[in-house]
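Supplementary Methods, section 5.1.

A reviewer requested that the exact input to the structure prediction be made available. We therefore reproduce it here, unchanged from the version used in the analyses.
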Amino acid sequence: MLEENESAQLPELPGPVSEKAETPSDVPQASADFRTIPNDAEAFGTVPRAAERRENHTLSVRETARRFEAAGVARTERSIINWCQPNRQGIARLDSYYEPNERKYYITLQSVETAIQEEIQRAKQSKEAPASEAFGSCVEPVKHLESAAGAKVMNEKKLQELEREIMDLKITNRGKDYLIDQLQKERNGFFDQLLSANRKVGELETKLLRLESPDSSE
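The structure derived from this sequence is encoded token-by-token as follows.
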């Protein structure tokens, strides 16, 4: 009985501990490679290699400008350089290569010929366009119609000017008439004076003859 009681009081011993339980803080091998960067991501952000000069990059900027001039569509060397550089869309009109050591552009003959043909077509289109649409033609200014109020004001001003001119003519005519009247009056007065003077002369001659007549009788 005692042995049974002692065996009943003794606690049960725990079972064998596994290796995993002894190292609860160990990280599994599957998570050991967490956040590792793949090989493809190592090259991210690298600058691409510059395009190399090809065999057909032979023409210089000056030679290209001479070819445009010979074709009748002369272009400056500055324009040729601008066409070698990419536009906003990243596309260059001329296929070229910039030699950093020489600091010069070398252009392919094929791209130059293509650009020359394009410029020739543009020149033809500008010549065939109507005179009003030709490049560099002067555009006549647009004549805006006058509003009703503006036209009324202009008419009133013209009427006022005409009235002033009529009034000036009337004043001038009145001055003429007055001057003519004065001249006529002066003329009439001159004739009257002349007539009276002739009468006096006649009277004096008569008196003179009367005075001389008695002496002649004696």
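The longest strand covers residues 104-108. These observations are discussed further in the main text.
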